[in-house]
Design brief:
The structure holds two protein chains of two kinds.
Chain A lengths: L2 E6 L2 E6 L4 E3 L4 E4 L6 H7 L9 H16 L3 E4 L7 H5 L3 H11 L3 E5 L13 E3 L2 E3 L2 E3 L10 E3 L4 E7 L2 E10 L3 E3 L10 E2 L3 H6 L5 E4 L5 E4 L6
Parallel strand pairs in A: 4-5, 5-6, 6-7, 9-10, 10-13, 11-14
Antiparallel strand pairs in A: 1-2, 2-3, 3-4, 8-9, 11-12, 12-13, 12-15, 15-16
Chain B lengths: L5 H9 L6 H8 L5 E5 L6 H13 L9 E4 L3 H18 L5 E4 L5 H9 L4 E4 L1 H8 L4 H5 L4 E4 L2 H4 L3 H16 L4 E6 L5 H8 L7 E4 L7 E4 L17 H9 L4 E4 L3 H14 L6 E4 L5 H12 L5 E4 L14 E5 L5 H8 L11 E5 L3 H15 L13 H14 L4 H8 L10 H13 L13 E3 L5 E3 L4 H7 L9 E6 L5 E6 H5 L6 E4 L2 E9 L2 E6 L19 H11 L9 H13 L8 E8 L2 E7 L3 H18 L4 E6 L4 E5 L12 H13 L2 H14 L7 H5 L8 H11 L4 H12 L4 H11 L3 E5 L17 E2 L4 H16 L5
Parallel strand pairs in B: 1-6, 1-7, 2-4, 2-5, 3-4, 5-6, 8-13, 9-11, 9-12, 10-11, 12-13, 16-20, 21-25
Antiparallel strand pairs in B: 14-15, 16-17, 18-19, 19-20, 21-22, 22-24, 23-24, 23-26
Classes of the chains: A alpha/beta, B alpha/beta.
Chain lengths: 223, 800
């Protein structure tokens, strides 16, 4: 498996280069912030008509991760849809694709701030999922332990001999994991940002996504 | 024929002035539908443009807007307003003049729409915005004349294309509109006049007396210039002598970084404490305005500057222009020289300072071209489609339109005279639906057709967003630089440059060395540094490529038997090259191969300009990799590319097969950073991406979409999409400059001279000192990232 292995609350986890999190013991694949239907929402609100291929692209990558891991359970960690209307307006092809992915495995939609309402797609809809010793929710709660969340779309930069490299990144410390956004058209929040710097412990790691996940000490602003 | 009314002749007489012949001629030809005035700086060009307007308005009969003045600079609009107010007040003319730019207040702009002045001074962007309002027909109904100032500069960019589209619109609103263009010296005035005029309409040229020939020379120094580099630091003592001997000197540089370094070195050597300032586009506006004011007041003896002083009003009493570094382009050189001595009929004085040995040759070639008044310039290509996409959105903001009408109107703009209906329809479809192979936005189209078939905005709120994005100027994302502890603003640096800084790094800005402390709320905070040598600031200053014409002159110069006009050190250098290898010739391609320090080297003297040679380097190394020649890297200048690798190239000729190069180009472009940069620019103009507002950047959550992701998505799912077609065209013209490579191959037509040598040649030697070496990597980038990550983990005492 192309991933970075680590433990959280005694559980063996693997951060995949694609931005998904794999929990081998439960055969659970976890992805955050798919933001399906983002281009549609953008156009609906009077913005430009962006290339309408991001939903297909996101599902294609998710499909590949499910196939590679043989996941028995897929957990979408909130903001799976860019808003509730985007979930309603999902093209038929995308609905069928999701239904096909759901066949033969359990599927959990965690509510996010963009998509609080239930969706009429298969799967279970939950506010959060306690799976002791871990807990899955959309937005991290300071002070929580064994917590897996999304929401912030973290990204990190490192300097290489060929210049600066910025990629979506997992943030990992001994209490929690913050997942990078999985959706194709999702932007990122630099882990320098106050919200992330305050949330994570000083010895947190950032794992950059890419062909091979790259762990680095979480970059922080110089004091 | 409009005669000079007595009130005007009295005014001229009272000031002891005589009307210039070209000013009288402008009055006489006031009825011409399109008239281009080519006049040197200081020739009373602006007054010539406005005289017919003032004469027509003198009787006070005209109601509303009469003349629209468009200039590339906001500052120029404000300045012209002040300059016009004087004659108007002194002659007691019933004329109201106002300017309207991005700096004009909201209330004033509203009032201007309700009650337009007789003369409105504006910029292409503000004009485009004005035409987007529903009341545009009322505002422009009485418009009689448009004056386009510095049209030679506007014509060089998309701002000119946008302006001509706006003029086509204005002409529909105000039939019979007359157009006047004011231009500095250009290579092809009739072409520029046609650009100004309505397509197919007559376009007249009026050329003012160009004045005496400029007094222009190469600066001779005792020490020869260095073999490579662009700083010109060796010439600083002589430059200071020249500054001392003149009232005010402008010292032009080709890039902002070079201007900063030169200014820094100048200060270190400025023992007399001469008042010298610096002016370039990355400096804080307040600081630039202080320098401009000091110059106008005559308080400065010299200003180190870049193209930021190419345009604009007379900055004080300049009597010497110094160009440091090869001029790259004869036309721009001539225009810069014109900045010296704004008194009409006095020769301009200029000195060229070659920054390195090769530039001595280039400067000599440029001097010959100036003497022969042989200006360079490429014909304008057809109007770009990204600008047309924006224009269609602007038209929709103003009100519903029929596609047929808009198509006909657009074709009345000269750059779009040859526009096909298919291309127009593709742009309209893009503006309306996104134009994707997958029809996804039926419900949310940006533009819809009503029952009469007219196109209109589906959501009127979209007008606001479209107006926010009007314009074709690309502002790369920059960050402000300020002294720590709420100190003064110093200027701006590119976001990418800021991201590469670590606390403690030093760089030059505004002539001083500062230390990078950190980033605070999107402002780069710095503190003064006592160091004498900084890490160089990589500003977004343009790197011009040497023009085709100037390159051809250099090649012709190489063909001479001897070079009495060149300094001895340079003539001897060329003679040595001829003895050891040979000199490049106009209709042949010289390839040198030789071993050096354990590696094999190949030099291709293509003279295709910096961007073209860079592209050539990328394509050649790609082909060499395929052929198992293991290239390791390359470096390019305006005239040659040097490639080094592990294997010798016994027969270089097959490498230069144009068809194979072109095939390689297609593959290479796919994932190229240049293409992504070009895509971002075009997608922003076309309205696919919205400009990053400062507020959105501050929130950290980007309102805009990563253009790289959009580019990759389109390439993967919709490779024939209009935006990709536009990107390819633009990149070929611009950064990739494959046209120059193609031109080189055509010029050479297979006549390749291969000189296989035992050691490095005189002409190749400077290439070894060039900065900007490009490593050739296979899977290199990932490897370097892994290496850097491992080092960081090790430093933190962690195992990956």
């Amino acid at each position: 498996m192309n991933g970075y292995d680590f433990t959280l609350a005694g559980q063996q986890l693997c951060a995949l280069g694609s931005g998904a999190l794999w929990w081998p013991e439960r055969r659970m694949l976890c992805v955050a912030d798919l933001h399906l239907g983002k281009a549609e929402r953008h156009a609906r609100r009077g913005g430009a008509a962006l290339p309408p291929y991001e939903t297909a692209d996101t599902l294609e990558r998710l499909d590949a991760d499910i196939a590679a891991t043989g996941a028995g359970c897929v957990l979408c960690l909130g903001d799976s849809f860019d808003d509730d209307a985007a979930a309603q307006a999902l093209p038929e092809a995308a609905r069928l694709w999701i239904a096909r992915l759901q066949a033969g495995r359990s599927w959990i939609w965690i509510a996010g701030n963009h998509d609080p309402g239930p969706v009429d797609l298969g799967g279970t809809h939950l506010a959060e999922l306690p799976a002791p010793p871990l807990v899955f929710r959309h937005i991290a709660i300071p002070g929580a332990a064994g917590e897996i969340s999304g929401h912030y779309h973290p990204k990190a930069r490192i300097r290489t001999r060929a210049g600066t490299l910025a990629r979506r990144a997992f943030l990992i410390d001994r209490d929690r994991v913050v997942l990078p956004a999985y959706g194709t058209y999702t932007g990122g929040l630099d882990c320098h940002d106050r919200a992330l710097a305050d949330l994570m412990r000083p010895d947190a790691l950032a794992v950059l996504t890419g062909p091979r996940p790259l762990p680095v000490p979480m970059p922080r602003r110089a004091a | 024929m409009t005669a000079l009314p007595p009130r005007f002749s009295d005014w001229f007489a009272a000031r002891g002035w005589e009307i210039h012949p070209h000013q009288a001629e402008m009055l006489a030809r006031a009825d011409a539908p399109a008239l281009l005035l080519v006049a040197p700086t200081g020739g009373g060009k602006t007054l010539a443009g406005f005289l017919p307007t003032l004469a027509e308005l003198a009787d006070g009969a005209h109601e509303g807007l009469h003349t629209l003045y468009v200039s590339p600079l906001k500052a120029l609009a404000a300045d012209i307003r002040r300059n016009l107010t004087r004659p108007i007040e002194e002659m007691g003319l019933p004329v109201r003049v106002e300017d309207r730019t991005g700096d004009t207040s909201y209330t004033k702009k509203r009032r201007q729409r309700a009650d337009p002045p007789h003369i409105l001074l504006t910029t292409p962007e503000s004009l485009a915005l004005l035409t987007s309002y529903e009341d545009a027909p009322r505002i422009f109904a009485g418009l009689r004349r448009v004056i386009v100032d510095e049209i030679h500069a506007l014509a060089e960019s998309k701002r000119g294309d946008q302006l001509m589209l706006a003029l086509a619109r204005l002409e529909s609103l105000a039939p019979g509109l007359r157009r006047v263009g004011l231009s500095a010296t250009v290579e092809d005035p009739p072409a520029l006049a046609r650009f100004l005029a309505r397509a197919e309409a007559p376009a007249e040229v009026l050329t003012a007396d160009p004045g005496p020939d400029p007094d222009i020379r190469m600066m001779r120094t005792r020490a020869a210039p260095p073999w490579a580099g662009g700083g010109g630091a060796y010439a600083i003592p002589k430059v200071l002598d020249a500054v001392r001997a003149h009232r005010t000197t402008l010292i032009f540089h080709n890039t902002r970084a070079q201007a900063e370094i030169f200014f820094h070195n100048l200060w270190l050597a400025n023992d007399d404490g001469l008042p010298i300032g610096i002016h370039h586009g990355s400096l804080d506006r307040g600081q630039r305005e202080r320098v401009e004011a000091a110059m106008t007041a005559g308080a400065l003896r010299a200003v180190v500057c870049t193209g930021s002083l190419d345009l604009g009003i007379d900055w004080g009493d300049v009597d010497l222009v110094i160009q440091v570094g090869a001029p790259k382009n004869v036309k721009r050189l001539v225009q810069r020289i014109g900045r010296a001595n704004h008194r009409y009929n006095a020769p301009s004085k200029a000195l060229l300072v070659p920054a390195n040995r090769f530039e001595v040759v280039e400067c000599e070639a440029a001097l010959q071209a100036v003497r022969e008044r042989d200006l360079d310039g490429a014909p304008r290509g057809p109007g770009p489609l990204d600008v047309l996409c924006q224009h269609i959105l602007i038209a929709a903001c103003a009100g519903p339109f029929h596609a047929d009408d808009l198509f006909a109107e657009v074709r009345r703009a000269d750059p779009y005279a040859g526009l096909t209906r298919a291309d127009f329809d593709a742009c309209l479809d893009f503006a309306a639906t996104g134009g994707y192979a997958l029809r996804a936005y039926d419900r949310w189209q940006r533009l819809k057709q009503d029952a009469q078939g007219r196109w209109h905005l589906r959501d009127p709120r979209a007008a606001q967003r479209i107006r926010m994005n009007i314009g074709t100027i690309q502002d790369t994302d920059t960050l402000k630089v300020r002294m720590r502890g709420r100190g003064p603003m110093l200027g701006e640096v590119e976001e990418g440059f800021a991201a590469s800084l670590s606390p403690g790094d030093t760089f030059l800005i505004g002539g001083r060395i500062v230390r990078y402390d950190g980033l605070r709320e999107l402002t780069v905070e710095v503190s003064p540094s006592p160091r004498r040598t900084p890490k160089i600031a990589v500003f977004n200053g343009t790197k011009f490529a040497t023009s085709t014409q100037l390159s051809a002159r250099i090649l012709r110069l190489f063909g001479q038997d001897a070079w009495p006009e060149l300094p001895a050190h340079t003539a001897e250098w060329l003679a040595l090259q001829r003895r050891i290898s040979r000199l490049p010739a106009p209709d042949r391609l010289l390839i040198e191969t030789f071993p050096h320090e354990g590696r094999q080297h190949l030099v291709a003297y293509g003279f295709a300009g910096r961007n073209g040679q860079q592209t050539l380097g990328l394509l050649l190394t790609k082909r060499m990799e395929e052929m198992g020649l293991d290239p390791l890297g390359f470096v390019s200048t305006d005239y040659a590319t040097l490639i080094w690798g592990l294997e010798a190239v016994p027969d270089p000729a097959p490498l230069f097969d144009i068809a194979a190069l072109e095939a390689g180009l297609e593959r290479w472009l796919a994932s190229n950073a240049v293409m992504k940069r070009t895509f971002r620019a075009s997608a922003t103009i076309a309205g696919l991406i919205e400009r990053n507002t400062p507020a959105a950047r501050k929130s950290g959550k980007q309102a805009t979409f990563s253009s790289d992701i959009l580019y990759d998505t389109l390439r993967k799912y919709d490779p024939d999409h209009l935006m990709l077609r536009i990107t390819r065209t633009e990149a070929m013209r611009g950064l990739v400059d494959f046209d120059r490579v193609r031109e080189m191959c055509a010029r050479v037509a297979g006549r390749i001279d291969h000189a296989a040598l035992e050691r490095i040649t005189p002409l190749a030697a400077p290439l070894f000192l060039e900065p900007g070496r490009v490593p050739v990597e296979g899977a290199g980038r990932e490897r370097l990232a892994e290496e850097a990550a491992a080092a960081l983990m090790a430093e933190a005492g962690l195992d990956a």
